[in-house]
Design brief:
Blueprint (H helix, E strand, L loop, with lengths): L1 H21 L6 H5 L13 H30 L1
Helix pairs in contact: 1-3
Length: 77
């Protein structure tokens, strides 16, 4: 069980990094420092962005479950 949770944690961590990098920058922050602030936002968010948000939230939930499960297994054993 511990091995499954650790593999899930690694996979979701990598996937989470990729999903966060796919998001379009919405604020000033560091993205504008590297030229991201020059883009004009069109008419709000598209369907693809909404789906990307949903997928990211699901991956975050699985990531948190893997972390909690791994922590519980370490505490028990």
């Amino acid at each position: 069980m511990n091995l499954i949770l650790q593999i899930g944690l690694i996979l979701t961590s990598v996937l989470l990094v990729l999903l966060v990098l796919l998001h379009r920058a919405k604020g000033g922050g560091l993205s504008s420092l590297f030229g991201g602030g020059m883009q004009s936002s069109l008419s709000g968010s598209s369907v693809a962005e909404k789906n990307l948000d949903r997928i990211t939230i699901v991956v975050i939930a699985v990531w948190v479950i893997c972390i909690i499960g791994t922590g519980l297994l370490i505490k028990i054993g």
